[in-house]
UniProtKB/TrEMBL annotation, chains A, B:
Name used for this protein in its record: Branched-chain-amino-acid aminotransferase
A GO BP annotation: isoleucine biosynthetic process
Required cofactor(s): pyridoxal 5'-phosphate
The UniProt record lists the keyword Amino-acid biosynthesis: yes
Pfam families tied to this protein: Aminotran_4
Length: 358, 358
């Protein structure tokens, strides 16, 4: 798949020396080392200025920049994939751009033109393509983000913004299977709130409850509705899938739940591979009962960073429920199907793969 | 009132030249010009380092600093007051420090020692005391804030933070009376969320619904619960007071509503001045019915920035309800009582006034 975009005049200032020799590609953590360059786009005087590529460098901001005070910040998560021939691909990048602008609108941040996003991203990736890991389980994690750089202590939208793309050669997000806690006290988002947006504030609010869960031996919280804590929502950095008998179920998206690109891709792939799927509200009671009677076969998280993360057990009201170890799990089957598309190892009948460089 | 604090070794680097001659003290906006100095305190390797005062200057951060991505940012709002003798006062500053740490805990930010806050603040104010406006309605707005300066794209708490205090000689927050819209679609916070914290993300989420309200001719949104939109919560930068007949009512604080220092001070002052008060849930139906039968006498917002902001009218479901113009309103009476304490014009039997410099 490719798209026609208006030609954008992107200025490029190359790094004088490369940091690539400092990267230990055999022992990559998630998102902690960065490539040589970054893309910066400034919003000033009511317009997004043309994107600039420059050496990865520190950002200077006034102490009154509104990002520090009022949380006007949004982001996206993407990955770049390299196949055996060295060709470079993205996965449904236009969906990331669309969602970035959905988040932007809800946070009163000016929307970014598609061609700035797409041309900026592909130009940056071509320049830093040597940083794309080829080792199984590693990838180049791409972080497009936007924040209020305009100044002032008045609680109102800023008049200046920055859009930046930075990239990090990364290992896997979770190491091994994930044990989750079904949250019964804290909440991630409100009806009519910003839960559907990739807004910075949605994440900071999860850290404390997640730390409490980690102290109890879990890796991650599964969020529930803020009224009854009875409906399964999402896992913060992942959407949640639940397999009861042979049916794969995930909750509907809403103004509280992120419309995950991995989530919707998995739903489509599952349907095409004869896996019965349901998109409907899932209650905690239903999951607990299914765990008790043995009909709960699998749970997994799905997101760009974590891809598909199988869940080994869940905790609910001081009791842990183990999930069975399956030989041919939906999680492993679906993970292979989606990553084969992403890494150009299989046909892409969906048109999801986007070639950056052949 | 004064407190004993441990002596802290604060390093001071003075500005070479002062910007004070550039400040137009007769035409101050809210929070848009800053004093000569700022206080910076860094959290590194598990400890808060000693505070440093330095010339007000830009902050340098890595593009991967978590404040840009995960909204780990909190703040406080305070004011410094100068009396006719040039003495300088704060109002209940220890309560701001306490609340800062309450916010910090909920956002997984390390708590700041009281002596760093208090000594840092008073040292900074003494240095920049010439910036404290003396004109009626103006004040020095003080913004203590803390954010995640540590790096990484993993959605987890940062390992480094910055605490900064910056000050802005400011005019009033609202010009004139305020027309509010009782929100029926969007929400500010969830049960079990971070609404009680002064977290950056709580503000960004309000901007879009507030912009929609501004386009309809209102100045501010009054937030309601996220389930039924039937309970009055707060106004984002202010708590809300409602006078029905002679009783002054405000909602109880909760995990959704900020525990405002102006709010609780007003409650206490009102009680001591024979104004009947109630702290209880207020329904929108009750307010609309009171507007219809004439028992709704006043509504006002209360907060550090806005002090007491009388509300002239509220909108609810496409209908506007005007509030009467009162000769001796509770709002004006209470505003005089609280500002007289703040500006050292009356006795302070509560011990709320805190002398910075005599």
């Amino acid at each position: 798949m490719s798209v026609e975009t208006k030609k954008v005049n992107i200025s490029v200032e190359r790094a004088k020396t490369s940091k690539i020799n400092q990267v230990d590609f055999d022992n990559l953590k998630f998102g902690s080392v960065y490539t040589d360059h970054m893309l910066v786009c400034d919003y000033k005087n009511g317009v997004w200025e043309a994107p600039k590529i420059m050496p990865y460098q520190q950002i200077m901001l006034d102490p009154s920049a509104k990002v520090f005070h009022y949380g006007q910040s949004i982001f996206e998560g993407m990955k770049a994939y390299k196949d055996d021939n060295g060709s470079i691909f993205l996965f449904r990048p236009l969906d990331n751009h669309k969602r970035l602008n959905i988040s932007a609108k809800r946070l009163s941040i000016p929307e970014l033109p598609e061609e700035y996003f797409m041309e900026g991203l592909t130009t940056l990736l071509e320049l830093d393509s040597d940083f794309i890991p080829t080792k199984e389980g590693s990838s180049l994690y791409i972080r497009p983000f936007m924040f209020a750089s305009g100044n002032g202590f008045h609680a109102s939208p800023a008049d200046e913004y920055k859009f930046i793309i930075a990239c990090a050669p990364s290992g896997s997000y979770f190491s091994g299977k994930v044990k989750v806690l079904i949250e019964q006290t804290y909440s991630r988002s409100a009806n009519g709130g910003v839960g559907f947006a990739k807004a910075g504030g949605n994440y900071a609010g999860q850290f404390y409850p997640t730390q409490l869960a980690i102290e109890k031996g879990y890796n991650q919280v599964i969020w529930t509705d803020d009224t009854e804590h009875e409906y399964i929502e999402e896992a913060g950095a992942m959407n949640i899938f639940i397999r009861i008998n042979d049916t794969l179920i995930t909750g509907p998206t809403s103004d509280r739940i992120l419309d995950g690109i991995t989530r919707k891709s998995i739903l489509e792939i599952a349907k095409d591979n004869s896996i019965p799927t349901e998109v409907r509200k899932i209650t905690v009671t239903e999951v607990v009962n299914a765990a008790k009677d043995g009909s709960l076969k699998e749970m997994f998280g799905a997101g760009t960073a974590a891809v598909i993360s199988p869940i080994s057990a869940f905790g609910y009201k001081d009791k842990d429920y183990d999930l069975p170890e399956l030989e041919n799990s939906y999680a492993s089957k679906l993970k292979k199907l989606i990553t084969d598309i992403q890494y150009n190892k299989s046909e892409d009948k969906y048109g999801w793969r986007f070639m950056v460089k052949s």
